[in-house]
Design goal:
Layout (H helix, E strand, L loop, with lengths): L9 H10 L6 H11 L3 H10 L11 E6 L2 H5 L2 H12 L12 E6 L11 E3 L2 E3 L4 H10 L2
């Protein structure tokens, strides 16, 4: 794991720590805090602020749906409902087979092509309720 060099490195440190387990468990955050002499509250604050960091277990395919104003204005709620109906889960849940988890995040940086979602780090834009069903099929 990278050695802590100051506040600018906390994000990189947490991203690296999350890679193998897939999420930042409380025990892992506590261990990092001890090893790097960083207040655990600071680590938890960073881990819960960024939408690409998770503090709870996730599915093999992590779906992040943008809920920013541009996405909202382009009916992202209809897109999210299509995903929820297709997978049978709500945001914050994991499918029974562990294949998918669904998360609502504040911004994916794709406002010019709203609505948007990210699956395993890959951004999908200009979504419609029917297009997300096709996209999910790529990850089954």
């Amino acid at each position: 794991m990278a050695e802590y060099q100051g506040n600018r490195d906390v994000l990189a440190l947490l991203k690296e720590a999350q890679e193998k387990p897939g999420y930042l468990a409380a025990e892992l955050l506590q261990q990092i805090a001890r090893d790097c002499r960083i207040p655990v509250g600071h680590l938890y604050g960073v881990a819960t602020f960024y939408g690409f960091l998770d503090t709870r277990p996730v599915g093999r395919n992590v779906i992040r749906i943008c809920q920013s104003v541009p996405c909202y204005l382009k009916e992202v709620d209809a897109v999210a409902k299509a995903i929820e109906d297709e997978l049978g889960i709500k945001p914050g849940e994991i499918t029974g087979d562990g294949r998918f988890s669904l998360h609502r995040v504040n911004c994916l940086g794709a406002c010019d092509h709203a609505p948007a979602m990210m699956v395993n780090g890959r951004v999908h834009v200009d979504l419609t309720p029917s297009s997300v069903i096709d996209i999910l099929g790529e990850y089954r």
